[in-house]
């Protein structure tokens, strides 16, 4: 029986020894500091957990029914020394744990620029961080390198010991961007931008993925992260540029369609400000950007007259599929005159797409701001009487 137990324990130990505990052996300084925080916090908690567990076994054995030599004190109910130990030790541990957690939370804030490359090596202020713009699509990751004018899907690379600044957003639902070897995870959310700083200290091939369930293709939403020397990274950038392909609006709208288990793709060029268009949800031609909409709202809005600017979403377009629980009913086309809309339709990117917005009702510019009470004046009533229905 003892031999069987020993064999089982030995097999279990061998199985666990084959695990790649990347969280406890990361290749990036930020992830290493997070590892240290987890280890220190665990050890502090074990200072009280281990003695309590050991004393539980000790008391059960010491005061068992068969031990006639144990002291029997049925009237014992208080010990000042014991009360002091029971309350003081956990209180001291909580104070230490709170101090360590508070300092670690601020020092490892994902929005905080890095102060060091690794332990004892401060960041060279003359070295600019590598900016990587990340968009979580359904169900794949898009990486844009604005410094190099390239983009990739489900593949990214970074030079060793150079700080990385991620700018993240999402196209439809919330995802969690996570490279365990590099840094902690952070959420990518539609219509918002989050930031993550990190650095890789060892060359190698690492895995990144989404740590937040986001639909059918979630399990295949993984990508390769290459930690490389500067020379190898420059060669990787050159290989991406030689791969050909351009990621403009038209190509992006096709890429944004839901798909699963996508292979890595490379784009030699990318449309400027594409990340901003994705973040502000206006990559589709004719759709108003969120920052423009918020600017109009901050100035007082367009009032009731702005209703005519709403256009129905054409079936099959990405915006019709961007709502998680159903299609959107309308979108804001633009704020312009009919002449401005006609001029915009003649641009290169608009002429290549089938127009889906009738420019005639786009008359937001110069309209008087209506009264707070829509029935306060005959003029407002007249405007309401001649209002066109949606989509006309």
How would you portray this structure in words?
This protein is of the alpha+beta class. The protein has three domains: 22-63 and 80-108, Helix Hairpins (Orthogonal Bundle), CATH 1.10.287; 121-279, Immunoglobulin-like (Sandwich), CATH 2.60.40.420; 290-385, no CATH class. Helix content is 34%, strand content 19%. The strands form five sheets. Strands 10-7-3-4-5-14 form a six-stranded mixed β-sheet. Strand 1 and strand 2 form a beta hairpin. Residues 320-325, 348-357, 359-363 and 370-392 have low confidence and may be disordered. Its main location: membrane. Residues 127-239 form the Cytochrome oxidase subunit II copper A binding domain. Belongs to the cytochrome c oxidase subunit 2 family. Keywords: Cell membrane, Electron transport, Lipoprotein, Membrane, Oxidoreductase, Palmitate, Respiratory chain, Signal, Transmembrane, Transmembrane helix, Transport.
